[in-house]
Amino acid sequence: MENIAEEVLKGNRFALSKAITAIENEYDNATEIMQKLYPHTGHAYVLGVTGPPGAGKSTLTDKLAKEYRKRGKTVGIIAIDPTSPFSGGAILGDRIRMNELTLDPGVFIRSMGTRGSLGGLSHKTADAVKAMDAFGVDVIFVETVGVGQSEVDIVKAADTTMVVLIPGMGDDIQAIKAGILEIGDIFTINKADHDGADKLATELNMMLDLDGETKDWRPPILKAIANQNIGIKEVVDTFHKHHDHIEGNGQLTVRRTERAKNEMLDLLDARIGAYVRHNIVDNGKLDEYVQDIKARKTDPYTVVNSVLQDMLK
Ligand SMILES: Nc1nc2c(ncn2[C@@H]2O[C@H](COP(=O)(O)OP(=O)(O)OP(=O)(O)O)[C@@H](O)[C@H]2O)c(=O)[nH]1
Ligand SMILES: [Mg+2]
User: For position 92, what pLDDT does the model report?
Assistant: First the structure.
């Protein structure tokens, strides 16, 4: 395909698929594709969905996507494959569960691999989001597992982030609370058909009370039974509420500006890193430096200073 970007802009699904593959694998044409797509981004609303493995994130996303379709919106879904080998089986599950959605031309689903590329994943996810945005979907879901730093980085691509929790997590909630309180605009307790949903809601409420004194948005706590389609409309309504809230108080613009800034700095870091590598690692100079540093003939600080001076000439 000659003009992948042009085809994406025309709404060609196959081209969108190729564009995301180029992004994922860092093909040479990825930058050019993004340059052409970028002017056409900024229209989609991006929803982050994160939470522990098996919480029902994909099931929820599937039902939420269908609800958005009912409301006349087109939907993109990016599922970031679980890194853990324990939940690796869910990748196939995701595809099967979301299968009926893939028959709907108003929905585009794509999973992206994390293996071996955690560092670059947030920027690849952000680019995949932009590709879907330029393609023309109204709403984009980004599903990630867990609440570690890499997920936090990934949800930075989202305008509104929902954290999915499940009853019976016991002390786990203590362990992850710092991370989840920070990133959750909305909390959904899924699997509310299991015991302990109310207890979890109470605990979460207490934590949010402690955390939320200075904030003007109190993250709502919702309950859902995703596989029975219960609580789905309420989640979508709450997404809308949060959207209206951050649009009204200017936070949406602030978030998006911050995102543009961080993305540019990340890109710059990556390019500079690649340039440095190319210049001192590939030509074997690094090994010489390391030998000299090890022998205490010089030190890393001096070496870095002189390498930089040489490069910036
Ligand atoms: N009982 C019950 N089971 C549910 C509910 N929602 C989802 N499930 C089931 O929980 C299992 C995991 O659901 P997924 O949607 O794959 O969960 P996930 O969070 O996407 O999982 P990973 O992507 O692997 O982290 C599936 O067997 C679902 O059918 C619910 O509300 N109640
Ligand atoms: Mg999933």
Answer: 43
Q: How many domains does the chain have?
A: 3
Same domain, 203 and 133: yes
Q: Rounded to the nearest whole angstrom, what is the distance from the C-alpha of residue 65 to the centroid of ligand 2?
A: 14
Same domain, 170 and 300: no
58 closest CA partner among 131, 164, 168, 130: 164
What pLDDT, on the 0 to 100 scale, is given for residue 91? Answer: 43
Q: For 21-59, b where at least 16 C-beta lie within 10 A, e where not — what string?
A: ebbbeeeeebeebbebbeebbeebbbbbbbbbebbbbbb
In whole angstroms, give the CA distance from residue 258 to residue 158.
Answer: 12
Residues with CB under 6 A from ligand 1: 53-59, 82, 87, 90, 93, 145, 190-191, 193, 225-227
- Looking at the fold, whether 32 and 45 belong to one and the same domain comes out as no
Q: Are residues 91 and 232 in the same domain?
A: yes
Ligand (nearest to CA of 166): 1
Residue 257 domain-assigned (yes or no): no
pLDDT value for 83: 46
